[in-house]
Amino acid sequence: MTILAMSLKIKGWRKIVKWSVWAVLSVLFLVFLIRVIVFENNYYGEKEGSERAAAVVTEDTDLDETEPTEKEVKEYTVAPDRPRYLTVEKLKVKNSRILPMGVNTSGELDTPRNIFDVGWYEASGKPGQGGTMIIDGHNGGPHVHGVFKNLPDLVAGDIIKVERGDGAIFNYKVVENKTVPLSESDAYMTAAARSPEPGKESVTLITCTGEWSQQQGTYLSRQFTRAILVDE
């Protein structure tokens, strides 16, 4: 009976030791996990609202930073009634290819893969047809500034030129250049999709701008530049 009692005591102690070890390991793992979470929150908190460094991966890691050659630009063609090239002399943008775009799976406007091209939302207006064209572009890639990096610099009276597929050129005069918080940008699209002056053909240029949010992986503002067709 004594031997049996001792055996039961030993087994009992082994079970206690086993569960104690698991409890200690669980506590250590929990502490480690909490420290990782706290570190990440502190790190992102420090980065929040700072200007994005030039060599940081943006929200789109598959961007092409290769500037199109003169030959590639010259050989780019579209249908006669569609926008082909965008020129904004003040921004040193000359004959940037205008690519037709739709919306992505999130319902947001797509942008070209190449940061030197711009995207024309196919469901928006066409040059010379009285509607409002919506054109977007990147402000930069991981290492290079994009076509619309300096879009916020435009002021009322600056000229935006759009060349159509048939060679016709349309001049648009900037009447509004507005920075809109990201949280309000979707609602502002209603205004961006129509002319700032009723009855006037217009174009709206859009890009990301403002402070970089490490947590959200995007800029915290959107730039909307609206311009109306200049009467010939």
Query: Based on CA inertia axes, which overall geometry fits?
Result: globular
What characterizes the major β-sheet? 8 strands, mixed, barrel
Percentage of β-strand residues = 25-35%
Poorly predicted residue ranges: 1-10, 36-40, 42-60
Strand order of the largest sheet: 1-2-3-4-7-8-6-5
Overall description:
- The protein has 3 helices and 8 strands, in the order ααββββββαββ.
- It has 232 residues and is α+β, with helices and mostly antiparallel strands.
- It folds into 2 domains: 1-47; 70-229, Sortase, Chain: A.
- The protein has an 8-stranded mixed beta barrel.
- β7 (202-213) and β8 (218-229) form a beta hairpin.
- It is globular and about 85 Å long.
- The N and C termini lie far apart (113 Å).
Helices, strands, pairings?
Blueprint lengths: L1 H46 L22 H5 L8 E6 L4 E9 L16 E4 L10 E6 L21 E6 L4 E13 H11 L9 E12 L4 E12 L3
Parallel strand pairs: 2-3, 4-7
Antiparallel strand pairs: 1-2, 1-5, 3-4, 5-6, 6-8, 7-8
